[in-house]
Amino acid sequence: MPYSYLKPLLDDNGSKIVLLVMDGLGGIATTQMGKSALELANTPNLDRLAAEGSIGQTIPIRYGITPGSGPAHLSLFGYEPLEYVIGRGALEAAGVNLPVRKGDIAARGNLCSLDQQGNVTDRRAGRISQEEAAPAIEKLKKVQIPGVEVEVRQVKEYRFVIVMRGEGLDPSLNDTDPQEVGVPPLKVTAGIPAAKKAADKMEEWIQEAYKALADEPVANGFLLRGFATDPGLPTYEDAYQLQAACIAEYPMYKGVSRLVGMDVLDLVGPGAEGEFKTAGKYWNDHDFFFIHIKKTDSYGEDGNLEGKSKIIEEVDQALPVLLDLKPDVLMVTGDHSTPAVLKSHSWHPVPFLLWAPETHRTDLETAFNERNCARGGLGTFPAVETMSLALAHARRLQKFGA
Amino acid sequence: MPYSYLKPLLDDNGSKIVLLVMDGLGGIATTQMGKSALELANTPNLDRLAAEGSIGQTIPIRYGITPGSGPAHLSLFGYEPLEYVIGRGALEAAGVNLPVRKGDIAARGNLCSLDQQGNVTDRRAGRISQEEAAPAIEKLKKVQIPGVEVEVRQVKEYRFVIVMRGEGLDPSLNDTDPQEVGVPPLKVTAGIPAAKKAADKMEEWIQEAYKALADEPVANGFLLRGFATDPGLPTYEDAYQLQAACIAEYPMYKGVSRLVGMDVLDLVGPGAEGEFKTAGKYWNDHDFFFIHIKKTDSYGEDGNLEGKSKIIEEVDQALPVLLDLKPDVLMVTGDHSTPAVLKSHSWHPVPFLLWAPETHRTDLETAFNERNCARGGLGTFPAVETMSLALAHARRLQKFGA
């Protein structure tokens, strides 16, 4: 459960909270003259909100820790990321809305290419497209073995997810991905003795599935990773008395949102503007909106500083659509930093903006970027405090003690 | 126990520490042009101390949590407020120096008005004065029942405190205040089975007491709240080797101070100047002085920005009286924020000033207010660290490890 001291203080006053996450927002300026993507971007709306409200910077997990997307979002959602661990398989399954219940086993799959000796020649089967991968996935969907039920769903391109359901299945299984080519896929092994049955059943299914793919020209094999079961997260309604909605384009962010009980909304259009209009369409049905912008992270990972900067500008330009809805609390931040110069996620603190016109404390900072956020009135704080700040500024928390 | 790692490091070197708390000090500027009460106030002395020393801002309990006065003060005193919970009854009893020992039950009482059917018509008996309430309180003092001992004391106006002493009394009792008019007071009920005897005894006393008040013209009933026993807090002497004194005008702050073993001093005069002169009178008898200014909070709760600002100026003007005593460490802060614009306690961080001319580290800030404190050298830190900083700057803590 997110901070247990919050629950007795909750007061559902109907106020509206928006958490706008630009994935991988934080960047770094590596020389005195350098600029981060956020500093490069022309962001009059965000700067105005920063001037009016409070800014600061978050530590996503712990000092020095570079987060994956799952724990980074859990932290923003108020779930202590070292305590709540979502296996990648469960996250991926939730992303495509494939139910994983306690005791089911989910895993991520990549189609791969094998040579005649059964050694991996390409761990992603040449990154074949959605359409090229579909026939192989269709074959996998038909593979069943006695005693368990197996469901397979394509995620995107060569990626799929598998869920196995049955009695006495423990998810402590080791990956079959050898992480290199020229060797065969690994056998599924049990990480703990209790997982022996699950390992046997999974290996049995894999052998049947290999037979089914034998005639495929490229995708004649596959690798499984991230075996996991339902993480059993408390929901937003239970933890915060919030009817929460997720507005995201990518499956994995929908997945983590579903795991905390958010409704995943159908987008009314593309990009930031489409997402903000989606919030408008469903504004009366929910009181918390998690809006996720993916491309800031993608460009960061590609080392494309200008591309990342342009996406930030696109968000800024669309922002009036969101502001016209008059949220009581608007928070703008990232789940982690993805500095273009590093081409990867990083551990650096993440810029954070809190704007709640009736309750925020104006600070001395007047621009939204890494360097000003480091001096902001909210200070440097753990990302897992985000929901406490949101609820407080929405006046949804009563006084603690007399 | 406050941080257990402090105790082996303690070194009573005779230095003097002053903790000056302006209740509800923090405010908010809600627009770029707005000002908080602290920003409005002309405070040359505080600004000089801020320029010479270090400033920062505290989180009273946790991010987003609005504290009541009890937990907020415990935190400043170094007692983790989620761990040490003082029931209101025990706090109120300590405030009027009515002893509550482990196993006793204390509760707050309000005189109230009942109609002929026994329904509450006014939960505070028309807020009658000290003198008007006195006859009813005198009658309550005389009510005794077999098997227990009961003591009643007037707190202020229509408010009183009751302590019941006897064998096997558990304080887990529910309030009798129905929190509305037009209905009768609630019966005392046991929150857990072990409290049944206490509930029966308390209800027996209440019925006798109602009979005693039957002829009162206005205050012909009463409501009880906050049943509690002694919280068993470690004392300042035990935790910090400090002979501590409390200088406060209001009972509840005297109460929380007594519960941590402070001596409550008799004031030599009114207002900040009277309190500072009181410190001077008893300067040689103690080495820690907690000085409490109430009216900053009262004006904040009333939404009176100018009033709050004037009180801060009054404190500033009287400050030389305190500085003439040459404290080794002077800390100026609040227990929480009470922004006039919100007319209530809030969760916002609290300005903090630390001045210790022989040991402080001067930072870049030169004014004492919310916005500068957010940039100060002490950063944003939990209020529960206040005593560690105090002891350190007073050179009362030896090195940890070799």
Could you please describe the fold and organization of this structure?
Two copies of one chain form a homodimer. In chain A, 31% of the residues lie in helices and 19% in strands. Chain A has 13 helices and 13 strands. The first copy, chain A, is globular. Chains A and B meet through β13 and α13 of A and α3 and α12 of B.
Key phrases:
homodimer, 402 residues, alpha/beta, 8-stranded mixed sheet, 5-stranded antiparallel sheet, 13 helices, globular
Low-confidence stretches of chain A: none
Oligomeric composition of the shown chains: homodimer
Report strand order across the widest sheet of chain A. Answer: 9-8-10-1-11-12-2-13
Amount of helix of chain A:
25-40%
Gross morphology of chain A is globular
Q: In terms of structural class, how would the helical and strand content of chain A be classed?
A: alpha/beta
Counted beta strands of chain A = 13
Q: Specify the number of helices of chain A.
A: 13
N-to-C series of helices and strands of chain A: EHHEHHEEHEEHEHEHEHEHHEEHEH
What is the arithmetic mean of pLDDT of chain A? 96
How far from one another are the termini of chain A? 25 Å
Strand content of chain A: 15-25%
